[in-house]
Design goal:
497 residues; mainly alpha
């Protein structure tokens, strides 16, 4: 019953924000709905980590449609968490632009629909329904990407839609082939994730591998895997900063969740080589993103390329095939979600003051705005993998597991690419935060943030979101609470059945 309430909350909020009851009505409704969703998602995660069924109260017939295990509970919790901090950040970020109330209501309606589409992905058990929800995320988020209605934003949105829908067609064909493989096996199991695992040993390997490759490439387009990643930097640089936090922080991981659900199916059938494909595609993504990070010119695009890198790291970790690597992959999903959302909040803080996304036009940020400068440095160090922060711990776990499994070449390449990405990110951030101002710059108009007399301060809600978002980045680098640790263990087990 809790799961149904979680799904209904953002839908109800999307309807309520269309009503006009004051300037902050839509923002308030969205924040309250997101917070309630987070509390209920936390309750679901707690139940699952303790070994209790989260679907208690639902009729048995619903088991064909809704199922929650450790992996889905983890993704559900992360979606709710990032949606809550992004909703808080949106209050000040959207108010800063003095937008018309009609446009604000449209933003929050699309925001809630986007959150709903993501929340439904991990709790649905039927793969074809999951595909429908994946495409709903495309439609809802495309409207958010194009929200600013500039030429660049509209071009990014169209590119996003066209490439994502091309991938969607390929993924749909993959799911149809998967269904045909299940029918050919003669199994009477339902067409669910668990049903596929049960039927996998008797499925024709050729059909199973074909389905996997089609789904991997099709949904890999939405995840941002190379070479299907070309839409991602454009969309993530043009969308409003809280939307970027959702897109980069958790939407990519929610879609990757669907791909990872196929690995226990593939492992149950000999000769499918799913792990090999994962390692190859993952390393290509990490390596390409690492070198692109060296030459990027837009700091929001920089964090977008970092997302491509981290999706590749997760896929590579799963391809290593060890339980420890799978646990590290789950850690990486969590650490990337909380860290990347913080990074885009920090980038949004800089953008609110500088009104430019160009790295070359931002210099001496720490002197002009200690808040934005410190947030950007912290976010850069965190997402690049500096100790003792969350990403460092998960990446160390993955590299350790790779060496234990004797994947020396893959692990060595992964380590090299991670180091290149680290230096690429910190090189740009160092210039932005500590670099000298260029000749001819006009520092008096650069920032309107804390520390500059007579200028507008960074909105309180944005500062609050930054504060809330940095807590898990710090804590998860040194301590993992026992319930979360149990949830990570269950999530890792879900993709190694």
């Amino acid at each position: 019953m809790i799961v149904m309430v979680i799904l209904l909350l953002p839908l109800f909020a999307a309807l309520l924000v269309c009503l006009h009851f004051g300037k902050f009505w839509a923002a308030g409704v969205t924040a309250v709905s997101s917070l309630a969703t987070l509390i209920l998602s936390g309750r679901v995660a707690w139940l699952v980590s303790a070994g209790n069924p989260a679907t208690l109260g639902l009729e048995p017939a619903w088991s064909k449609w809704i199922a929650v295990d450790g992996f889905s509970a983890l993704i559900l919790l992360l979606i709710a968490l990032i949606a809550t901090t992004a909703a808080i950040y949106s209050i000040g970020c959207m108010a800063h632009g003095n937008l018309q109330q009609r446009k604000l209501r449209l933003y929050y309606a699309n925001y809630n629909l986007f959150v709903f589409s993501m929340l439904a992905i991990p709790v649905l058990a039927e793969p074809t329904l999951v595909w429908i929800l994946v495409e709903l995320t495309t439609l809802c988020s495309a409207l958010l990407v194009s929200f600013e209605n500039t030429r660049e934003a509209l071009e990014a949105a169209w590119k996003y839609v066209v490439l994502s829908l091309m991938g969607a067609g390929m993924a749909l064909f993959g799911f149809l082939v998967l269904y045909a493989a299940m029918q050919a096996s003669g199994s009477n199991a339902a067409y669910t994730w668990n049903g596929l695992i049960a039927a996998a040993p008797t499925m024709p390997p050729v059909l199973l591998q074909t389905a996997f490759l089609l789904i991997l490439i099709g949904l890999g387009t939405k995840v941002g895997l190379v070479p299907m990643h070309t839409w991602l930097p454009d969309a993530h640089s043009q969308a409003p900063s809280p939307v970027c936090a959702l897109l980069s922080g958790i939407e990519t991981s929610a879609i990757l969740y669907v791909i990872l659900r196929l690995f226990p199916v593939m492992q149950a059938s000999p000769g499918t080589h799913a792990e090999t494909w994962a390692i190859v595609l993952g390393l290509i993504s990490v390596g390409t993103a690492a070198f692109l990070l060296l030459q990027v010119r837009d700091y929001k695009r920089m964090f977008a390329f970092s997302t491509v890198e981290h999706m590749g790291i997760i896929l590579t970790a799963v391809g290593l095939g060890a339980a420890a690597a799978d646990y590290g992959a789950m850690q990486q999903i969590v650490s990337h979600a909380v860290t990347k959302s913080f990074c885009f909040f920090a980038a949004g803080a800089v953008l609110l003051g500088t009104e430019t996304r160009q790295i070359s036009k931002v210099r001496g940020l720490m002197r002009k705005s200690p808040v934005a400068g410190a947030a950007l440095v912290f976010g850069g160090l965190a997402i690049a993998g500096a100790p003792p922060l969350a990403v460092f711990l998960s990446e160390f776990s993955i590299l350790k597991a790779g060496l234990t499994q004797k994947y020396y070449v893959a692990t060595g390449l992964l380590a090299i690419f991670i180091v290149i990405a680290f230096f690429g990110i910190m090189l740009h951030i160092n210039r932005m935060v500590f670099g000298p101002e260029e000749q001819g710059a006009a520092p008096e108009h650069l920032l309107d943030m804390p520390g500059i007399a007579g200028k507008t301060r960074l909105p309180i809600s944005c500062r609050l979101a930054l504060l809330l978002a940095c807590v898990p980045v710090l804590v998860l680098g040194v301590y993992i609470p026992r319930p979360l640790q149990e949830l990570l263990t269950q999530a890792a087990a879900a993709i190694t059945k």
